[in-house]
Amino acid sequence: MPTVRELDGANAGGQFVRTALTLSVLTNKPIRIDNVRGDRSTPGLRHQHLAVLETMGELCDADISGAELGAETVSFDPGLESTDGATDWRGRGPGRLPGGEYDIDIGTAGSAILLFDSLLPLATVLDSQLSVTVTGGTDVPFSPPLDYSRYVKLPLLGQLGLTADYEVDRRGFYPDGGGQVTLQLAPSTLEPVDLTERGDLEGVRLYSTESASLADRNVAFRQAEGALERLALDEFGLEVLERRETTVASPSPGTAIVLRLDHGTGVAGFAALGERGKPAERVGEDAADALNRFLEEGGPRPAPVDRHLADQLLVYLALEGGRVRVPEATGHVVSSCELLAEFGATVDVEQVTETVDGETALVSVESPVDL
């Protein structure tokens, strides 16, 4: 009987739960999480966290307890069978997680993108194509918008060797959700992460989206214009590499804008969502302000990735080893590193560069988790 890894979520939120479940499947080790989402005003599993738990369980036919709304203790045992065959440079055998096709309905505007984020690392243990269709929110608060994941995160992970794509049937804005997106994920072998320097600045790509119900107000166009007027393009010698304005089907009115900064070693992304009563131009300005701050901060050795990517890349760092310079050692970064260490990764966080708002940090993993 394998030893159960005991985890405490008293000082963490939903990301702790999602990452712990991902690592449990990757390492094929059972876990128990107490005090689920303990630092939230409404602790315990919400719809979107329950959807991740149930999806992970379905993918590997896991043994689960606590799979109910509000549960503050969860046990999860993936119980995947070991496989025989040739091994790679880390001694791992062929993929042990079956692929297949799955349909998941979150039931609310809970984020489909966060669910997908928990599935993407599983490409390293897949034995065949995995297709997961999720109904829920695609562009909602406290989650990366769909276009951030599609045009910022996936291209960067593609540089590491991940093969993944989205097929979008309809968008789901807050509060109604109702979006439908399919993740196509293929078995992948990843390279170690090496993102320590920001390369020469190249330009900006802009993706502005409106629901069809707002098309007569030219919201997507106005968001884009607001962003471009606020961006410090001339100051930093940037050009607009791509500008895309899209009108989409959605059960709920809504808008989103994503800006992608291309530079010599990677990309960084910045986003904003529309709000009732907020001018479309201001939504674009908010995204541009975030990009401008990223360009202005960082001192002599600025980070190559934005704050959201910094946090999301850590699980890949733990899988294959490597280094990534992050804009700041936020609470999310620190708690994620502590969780990775619980699974056997040797993680080091070094404050290295003073900036106006703090310090960038270099996160490195010499010994990855044991898969």
TrEMBL record:
EC number: 6.5.1.4
A GO CC term attached to the entry: cytoplasm
Enzyme class: ligase
Domain of life: Archaea
Domain RNA 3'-terminal phosphate cyclase: 12-344
InterPro entries hit by this protein: RNA3'-term_phos_cycl_insert (IPR013791), RNA3'_phos_cyclase_dom (IPR023797), RNA3'_phos_cyclase_dom_sf (IPR037136), RNA3'_term_phos_cyc (IPR000228), RNA3'_term_phos_cyc_type_1 (IPR017770), RNA3'_term_phos_cycl-like_CS (IPR020719), RNA3'P_cycl/enolpyr_Trfase_a/b (IPR013792), RPTC_insert (IPR036553)
Pfam families: RTC, RTC_insert
GO molecular function: ATP binding; RNA-3'-phosphate cyclase activity
Predominant subcellular localization, coarse grouping: cytoplasm
Subcellular localization, as worded in the UniProt entry: Cytoplasm
Keyword terms, alphabetized: ATP-binding, Cytoplasm, Ligase, Nucleotide-binding
Reaction(s) catalysed (UniProt annotation): a 3'-end 3'-phospho-ribonucleotide-RNA + ATP = a 3'-end 2',3'-cyclophospho-ribonucleotide-RNA + AMP + diphosphate
Residues involved in ATP binding: D117, H308, L309, A310, D311, Q312
Residue ranges annotated for the RNA 3'-terminal phosphate cyclase insert domain, each copy included: 196-295
Residues at the active site: H332 (tele-amp-histidine intermediate)
SUPFAM superfamilies membership: EPT/RTPC-like, RNA 3'-terminal phosphate cyclase, RPTC, insert domain
GO biological process, one term: RNA processing
Family: Belongs to the RNA 3'-terminal cyclase family. Type 1 subfamily.
PANTHER family xref list: RNA 3' TERMINAL PHOSPHATE CYCLASE, RNA 3'-TERMINAL PHOSPHATE CYCLASE
Reported function: Catalyzes the conversion of 3'-phosphate to a 2',3'-cyclic phosphodiester at the end of RNA. The mechanism of action of the enzyme occurs in 3 steps: (A) adenylation of the enzyme by ATP; (B) transfer of adenylate to an RNA-N3'P to produce RNA-N3'PP5'A; (C) and attack of the adjacent 2'-hydroxyl on the 3'-phosphorus in the diester linkage to produce the cyclic end product. The biological role of this enzyme is unknown but it is likely to function in some aspects of cellular RNA processing.
Name of the protein: RNA 3'-terminal phosphate cyclase
